[in-house]
Amino acid sequence: MKTPAKRVPGSSRASKVPLAATSALSLTVDRDLQLPIYLQICQRFKTAIAQGHLRPGDRVPAVRGLASELNLARGTVEAAYRLLADEGYLLVRGAAGTVVSPGLINVSGQKALKITPPAQQIPQTEQRAAQPVILPFQMGLPALDAFPRKVWNRIVARRLRSGGVASLSYPDAAGYWPLRERVATYLGLSRGVVCAPEQVFITAGYRAALELVLHTLSRRGDKIWFEDPGYMNARKFLSESGVRLVPVPVDQDGIMVGQGRKLAPDARFALVTPSHQSPLGVTLSLERRMALLAWAGAGKPEERSWIIEDDYDSEYRYQGRPLPALKSLDRDDRVIYTGTFSKVMFPGLRLAYMVAPAGEVARFQRGSAGMRASSPYLFQASVADFMAEGHFSRHLKKMRSLYAHRRAITAQALLQVFGDSMKIDLQAGGMHLLATLQDGEEDTAIAARARQHGLSVHGLSDFCIAAQRPPGLLLSFTNIVDTDHALRVAQQLKRAFD
Amino acid sequence: MKTPAKRVPGSSRASKVPLAATSALSLTVDRDLQLPIYLQICQRFKTAIAQGHLRPGDRVPAVRGLASELNLARGTVEAAYRLLADEGYLLVRGAAGTVVSPGLINVSGQKALKITPPAQQIPQTEQRAAQPVILPFQMGLPALDAFPRKVWNRIVARRLRSGGVASLSYPDAAGYWPLRERVATYLGLSRGVVCAPEQVFITAGYRAALELVLHTLSRRGDKIWFEDPGYMNARKFLSESGVRLVPVPVDQDGIMVGQGRKLAPDARFALVTPSHQSPLGVTLSLERRMALLAWAGAGKPEERSWIIEDDYDSEYRYQGRPLPALKSLDRDDRVIYTGTFSKVMFPGLRLAYMVAPAGEVARFQRGSAGMRASSPYLFQASVADFMAEGHFSRHLKKMRSLYAHRRAITAQALLQVFGDSMKIDLQAGGMHLLATLQDGEEDTAIAARARQHGLSVHGLSDFCIAAQRPPGLLLSFTNIVDTDHALRVAQQLKRAFD
Question: What is the pTM of this model?
Answer without folding.
Answer: 0.78
